[in-house]
Specification:
Elements lengths: L5 H18 L4 E7 L8 E8 L1 H7 L5 E9 L5 E9 L5 E9 L4 H16 L5 E5 L3 H9 L8 E5 L1 H12 L2 H12 L3 H14 L1 H8 L3 H4 L15 H9 L8 H28 L6 H14 L4 E6 L4 E5 L10 E5 L4 E2 L3 H5 L4 H10 L13 H7 L27
Parallel strand pairs: 3-6, 6-7
Antiparallel strand pairs: 1-2, 2-5, 3-4, 4-5, 8-9, 9-10, 10-11
Helix pairs in contact: 3-4, 5-6, 6-7, 7-8, 11-15, 12-14
């Protein structure tokens, strides 16, 4: 009764999308219709939309995105496709949406083409995290612009772990598989894989058949920015759950309202952080402080090349742990522990090197973690749509004689 019936909502949708574009210039709306023998009849196929503040804000987010599809409830069986980024404070940053009949090679290709055209644009080296849906895999394999070095496709390890467990039905193997995936160092990864091989040679072969860069941190080369799963996109889908059973226009309204609230709240927080002269948001500061505390326990450093900043750091040995030697290369922003490369933030070994050399370790932290970039991410503004009487006409009302 509040939101109207499903048929009326679909008829209202074109006009509502036109109003979004009219009152919020730069909003992108793309339609696809099935062909019809009836003149003036538009049979819905796909709808894609994104807002200008999201397009502009993504430029200040780290270059990694997560995509996911979820069911819509109600009269029509449809799917909602979403893509999200990650802001400087490790929060979800919604980028774009699409409504499609089902997940397929065609629908995912259509969605990703528009995503690259309107949002990713000239950015290179994007990390794309997804599950292993056949349509996504086929799309990634088919299109050059989704291949390295432009894009680095990565598997959601949680989905992979679920598939692994269904195949081998062993909780101990499942845990080892996860530990192998999240190891930063090659030697530790090899140790986990040997344990898996001992327990189950078929499980070891199954994992070895997968490209290591797709599912392990030690081979990722920093394109995940530490994100191992599609949890960010799935979490956002969870936030939209109460809207997924609404008529379609009401659901789109909800995504708009949710995004506006998010921008207002986080822009205010960014202003407070900057006024407080904070260099990073709290989530980043907490991780950096943790590394700093660890660096104080490292016991020795050997310099090998002062010009390129090549050093070895000896970690603190205690109760059979630690006592490891790690090679740090300041020029390449790398450490043999793998964390500096994967998180784009100096690890404890790199911080120790900075401390001894009198260098500010914060100078080696990625700009995508800064409060300045956090503020830029949420600097865009939205405008209200006002009363429906002031909305522009539906774009399809002017095309009554065109066949779709």
């Amino acid at each position: 009764m509040v939101f109207g019936d499903f048929e009326t909502s679909f008829k209202t949708l074109p006009r509502y999308m036109a109003a979004l574009k009219y009152f919020n210039p730069g909003t992108v709306v793309e339609w696809a219709h099935q062909s019809s023998i009836m003149q003036g009849e538009h049979i819905f196929k796909f709808l894609f939309w994104t807002y200008k503040p999201s397009i502009d804000g993504f430029k200040s987010c780290r270059p990694v995105i997560s995509i996911d599809g979820t069911h819509l409830y109600g009269k029509y069986e449809m799917k909602l496709l979403i893509v999200v980024g990650i802001d400087a404070n490790n929060n979800i940053f919604p980028l774009a949406y699409a409504i499609v009949a089902r997940e397929s090679f065609e629908s995912w290709t259509w969605f990703l083409v528009l995503l690259w055209r309107h949002i990713v644009r000239e950015r290179q080296g994007i990390g794309l995290i997804s599950d292993r849906h056949r349509g996504i895999l086929q799309c990634v394999q088919t299109h050059d612009w989704l291949q390295p070095p432009s894009t680095h496709h990565r598997f959601c390890v949680r989905h992979l772990k679920s598939n692994f467990n269904k195949k081998f039905l062993n909780s101990d193997l499942e845990k080892l598989m996860w530990l192998a995936a999240i190891e930063h160092q090659k030697k530790k990864y090899k140790m986990r894989m040997e344990q898996i091989k001992t327990m189950s040679p078929p499980a070891h072969l199954w994992l070895k058949s997968l490209p290591e860069e797709k599912w392990t941190l030690h081979k990722d080369n920093g394109h995940r920015w530490g994100a191992m799963t599609t949890n960010v996109s799935e979490s956002y889908n969870g936030l939209l759950k109460k809207a997924r059973g609404l008529p379609v226009t009401a659901m789109v309204r909800y995504t708009f309202k949710n995004l506006v609230d998010r921008f207002v709240e986080r822009s205010t927080l960014a202003d407070l952080l900057i006024a407080d002269k904070k260099f990073w948001p709290r989530a980043v500061e907490k991780k950096f402080d943790e590394y700093w505390e660890r660096s104080l326990k490292h016991t020795d450093m050997q310099q090998y090349n002062a010009t390129k900043g090549v050093f070895e750091i000896l970690t603190f040995a205690h109760e059979g742990k630690g006592g490891n030697i790690h090679k740090v290369s300041a020029e390449g922003k790398k450490c043999s522990c793998g964390k500096w490369r994967n998180y784009h933030m100096p690890c404890s070994h790199a911080i120790k090197f900075c401390d001894i050399r009198g260098i500010q370790p914060k100078d080696y932290v990625s700009k995508y973690y800064s409060c300045r970039f956090y503020k830029q991410t949420y600097s865009g503004n939205f405008s209200p749509l006002g009363d429906e009487a002031y909305w522009p006409p539906s774009p399809f009302s002017l095309l009554a004689n065109t066949e779709y």
